[in-house]
Amino acid sequence: MTSIGKFIKRLLWAVLLLVVAFHVLVAGLLLIWKTQPINNSMFMLTHRLTGGSVTQTWADYDAIAQSAKQAAIVSEDSKFSQHNGFDFDGIEAARKKNEASGTMSAGGSTITQQLAKNLFLTSHRSYVRKGEEAVITVMIEKLWDKQRILTAYLNVAEFGKGIYGIDAAAHHYFNKSAAKLNRDESALLIGMLTNPKYYGDNQSDRGLRNKQRIIKKRMNNAVLP
């Protein structure tokens, strides 16, 4: 074997070891976070590293208003309580929508997939990241129950510049805890998730208010875990 061949072989082994080590780390954190509050994520870490401050307080499942949980499901993942991490009908619908529009506006990601990205990955789009997202999604679904997944998602999602988690958002925008959010407030906050930095400064935006109305109308159809 030539020196170049040996170098490539060593490089491949090094990459493999890094991948294995990363997934061991992910598994370890998921086991810890199965019962412990989550007060950091890759998105929060990135925000801090770029000079921003982060506001986030953990709220357990029962400390989050039912309306907020309903709103998250009907807006982000209507089949959340039934699937195993992937909504293949939603993925196909998003693919067709993107083909028709010629853009990547529709993602089709489930709540578990979004949680995997928020906790361990970045917003950068690539096939490698999507592959990692899929692997971590399977790990989350195997290690956590649906209540824990929904709780974690609502606690690490971004609701504005440096505002992470439903409780921090409730205090920031409405001066109350997540447990006391009403239907209008819950629908508005969940509607912000598609573009939190913009909507955080533009709460009267017509698009956001339309989302709020749609979410509120569908809220009672949510199947909670």
Features:
single chain, mainly alpha
Tell me what you see in this structure.
Its EC number is 2.4.99.28. One of its GO terms (biological process) is peptidoglycan biosynthetic process. It is a single-pass membrane protein. Peptidoglycan polymerase that catalyzes glycan chain elongation from lipid-linked precursors. By secondary structure, this protein is mostly helical. The protein folds into two domains: 33 residues; 188 residues, Penicillin binding protein transpeptidase fold, CATH 1.10.3810. A two-stranded antiparallel ribbon has the order 1-2. A hairpin with a 2-residue loop joins strand 1 and strand 2. It is elongated. The mean pLDDT is 90.
Based on CA inertia axes, which overall geometry fits? elongated
Strand content: under 5%
CATH homologous superfamily descriptor of the largest domain: Biosynthetic peptidoglycan transglycosylase-like
Strand elements, count: 2
What is the CATH-assigned architecture of the largest domain?
Orthogonal Bundle
Based on the structure, what is the oligomeric state of the protein chains?
A: single chain
For the termini, the CA-CA separation is: 56 Å
Structural class: mainly alpha
So how many helices? 11
Arithmetic mean pLDDT: 90
- C-alpha Rg, in Å? 19 Å
Stretches where pLDDT falls below 50 for ≥5 residues?
none
Task: Count up the domains.
Answer: 2
Q: Would you state the CATH class of the largest domain?
A: Mainly Alpha
Order of helices and strands: HHHHHHHEEHHHH
